[in-house]
Amino acid sequence: MVVTVDHSVDGLWQVESPLHDRISRQELQRTLHHDSAMLFTLSSRQTCTSPRRNNSSSNTNTSAALKPRRNLDCDVHLLGVKLASRRLLSHPKRVAKALLTMDRSLSPEDLTVILQAFPGLSDISILRRFHLQRMFDLWHNVIKLQQPPLSRTEQFIWELAAIQHGPARTELLLNLKLMPNIMQTISDQVQELGQACQSFLNAEQLPRLLRLVRLVCSVLNKENIKGFCLCALHNLRDTRCVTVQATLEDYVAHVAPFVGIDFELIDLEMKGFLPAATIPIEPLQQSLIQLSRMVQQSNELWTSLPHMHENESVEAELSQIHISLQNLEHEASYVLKASQEIKTALPGSGSVSNIANTLYRFVHRLCALPHQRSVQAISQKLTAGGIVIYGKSF
Question: Residues 337, 341, 342, 345: what is their CA dihedral angle, to the nearest 10 degrees?
Answer without folding.
Answer: 170
